[in-house]
Design a protein that fits this description.
Layout: H1 2-12, H2 18-29, E1 48-49, E2 55-59, H3 67-70, H4 78-89, E3 110-114, H5 127-143, E4 149-153, H6 155-164, E5 177-179, E6 184-188, H7 193-196, H8 203-216
The structure holds iron/sulfur cluster.
Length: about 220
C-alpha cells in the first residue's frame, strides 16, 4: 500500500512535460461554462482501484473536463459513465456510475490507469510525452503483482501496454486477444463520445469485451 501511495504522490507533483503541465493548469483556470462553479483538480492523475487486481485497464489520458476536473480517471464524463456501467455489470465496480471522487465507487479485481497522466490538448500527447510518462506505468506494473490481463482502451493504450510487457504490437482492433506467457492483452475501442455516439463502439461490443475480461481474470 505504501508503495502505491508514494508513487501516486510522485505522479501528482510531476511536471516533466512543460506543455502538458501548462495545459492542465490553463484548463483548470479557464473552465467550460457548464462547470464554471466547480474547482478543477488540474494536476496529473494516478491510477486507482484494487491493488490485488488481476485486470489492469489502460486508457489514453485523463480528459480535460473529466478526470482533470474531478481528480480521478474516467470520472465525470461520458467515457467514465460507460466504463463504470459495464464494470458494475460484470462485478468489477461497486456502483454503475463514476461522477466524482467522493461517490463511493470501489473497484474489485480491477485497476484503472492510463498511458499518460496529464490531459493533453485534443487528446493527443506527443511521442516524447508518452515516453516520459511511461515510467509510471512501469512502476505500477512492479507494484500490481497479480495482473494477468491488460485491457487496452484504444491504440495508444495498446502500444503502451505492448511496450510495458515487451511484446510486439500487432494490428489494433476491437475485442482482440493476444496471449503471451506472462500476460494476456485484450483490446477495445476507447469509449469516447466520438466512438460511442457514432456507433463505432456499440454497447453490445463494449459489453462483450468485459464479459471476456471477466472470464480471463477469474
Ligand atoms: S504526462 Fe506524465 S510525465 Fe508528463 S508531466 Fe504529466 S505526469 Fe509527468
Amino acid at each position: 500500500m505504501k508503495q502505491i501511495e508514494s508513487l501516486n504522490k510522485k505522479i501528482a507533483s510531476c511536471k516533466k512535460c512543460p506543455r502538458l503541465s501548462g495545459y492542465i493548469k490553463e484548463v483548470a483556470k479557464n473552465k467550460v461554462r457548464r462547470f464554471n462553479e466547480e474547482k478543477y483538480y488540474g494536476k496529473p492523475l494516478s491510477g486507482f482501484g484494487d491493488i490485488n487486481a488481476k485486470l489492469l485497464i489502460v486508457g489514453l489520458a485523463p480528459a480535460a473536463h473529466g478526470g482533470n476536473r474531478t481528480g480521478r480517471m474516467f470520472t465525470g464524463d461520458s467515457s467514465g459513465d460507460w466504463l463504470a456501467k459495464v464494470m458494475n455489470k460484470y462485478g468489477f465496480a461497486s456502483i454503475p456510475t463514476s461522477q466524482n471522487i467522493d461517490d463511493g465507487l470501489l473497484l474489485k479485481n480491477a485497476y484503472i490507469t492510463a498511458a499518460v497522466r496529464c490531459a493533453p490538448p485534443q487528446n493527443k500527447p506527443t511521442k516524447e510525452e508518452m515516453q516520459t510518462c511511461f515510467e509510471y506505468l512501469e512502476q505500477e506494473k512492479k507494484i500490481l503483482k497479480n495482473i494477468i490481463t491488460v485491457l487496452c482502451l484504444g491504440k495508444i493504450a495498446y502500444d503502451a501496454s505492448c511496450k510495458l510487457y515487451q511484446v510486439k504490437s500487432e494490428k489494433f482492433g476491437h475485442n482482440k486477444l493476444f496471449q503471451y506467457d506472462e500476460i494476456k492483452i485484450l483490446t477495445s475501442y476507447h469509449p469516447s463520445k466520438q466512438n460511442t455516439q457514432t456507433n463505432k463502439l456499440t454497447w453490445r461490443q463494449w459489453s462483450a469485451v468485459f464479459q471476456r475480461a471477466k472470464r480471463l481474470t477469474k
